[in-house]
Amino acid sequence: MARIWWYRELEPYSSLATPYVRLNGIVAGVSEPGGAFYVDVPPGHYHLSVDTIGVDFGQTKDVDLAPGMQIFAKIVSNDNWIEGGGGRGGGGGYRRNTFYVWLSPVEAAWPVIAHSYFYGGGYFYGSQPVAAALPPH
Q1: Looking at residue 79, what is its pLDDT?
Q2: What values do phi and psi take at 118, rounded to 5?
Q3: What pLDDT digit, counting tens, does each position of 91-114 carry?
Q4: DSSP characters for 68-113?
Q5: What span, in angstroms and rounded, lies between the C-alpha atoms of 134 and 121?
Q6: What CA–CA distance (Å, rounded) separates 31 from 35?
Q7: What is the pLDDT of residues 23-77, one digit of tens each?
Q8: Which of 33, 40, 63, 128 could serve as a FRET partner for 89 with CA atoms 20 to 30 Å apart?
Q9: Is residue 137 part of a domain?
Q10: Is residue 136 part of a domain?
């Protein structure tokens, strides 16, 4: 098995939306602000993505995972990609959620994950995700 850690920093001025994160187009979990979780997967090729309204370059990642490998997928929000309205200080402005998947080195990811809310782990077998199901002890 290989492990994919998903995490998102809690940033006070970023979106509080909770988009689905996907492996090969299948929901693997939910990105929570200030949260982290992992998914154990069989070795192989995976397309990592996050649901988003705004479309930009570099929002997804493709990875090839070997047995025992561990990667860290950081979900990043860009609240200014789509915004408008509320001219002349009258309020009523809007922003649309735009998210990205970035791959982070363990040295950058682990301190953030260690201070995040942990939402559990689970297994992902192709088309059969079992999110937040912890292995028996």
Answers
A1: 72
A2: -95, 120
A3: 556 667 889 999 999 999 999 999
A4: T-EEEEEEEE-TTSEEE--GGGT---EEE--EEEEEE-HHHHHHHH
A5: 6
A6: 7
A7: 999 999 999 999 999 999 999 999 999 999 877 888 999 999 999 999 999 999 9
A8: 33
A9: no
A10: no
Residue 17 DSSP class: -
8 A C-beta contact, residue 105 and residue 72: yes
- In the block, which residue shows the tokens 């995490």? 7
Closest CA to 119 of 10, 5, 2, 1: 5
Q: If you count them, how many residues does the chain have?
A: 137
Q: What does the pLDDT read at residue 133?
A: 41
Give the domain extent around 64.
Answer: 2-130
Sheet holding 61-65, edge to edge: 26-30, 20-23, 44-50, 61-65
pTM above 0.85, yes or no: no
Q: SS3 for 114?
A: helix
Q: CA torsion, points 88, 89, 95, 100, in degrees to nearest 10?
A: 100
Q: How many domains does the chain have?
A: 1
Asked whether residue 135 is domain-assigned, the answer is no
User: Does some domain include residue 34?
Assistant: yes
pLDDT for 93 equals 60
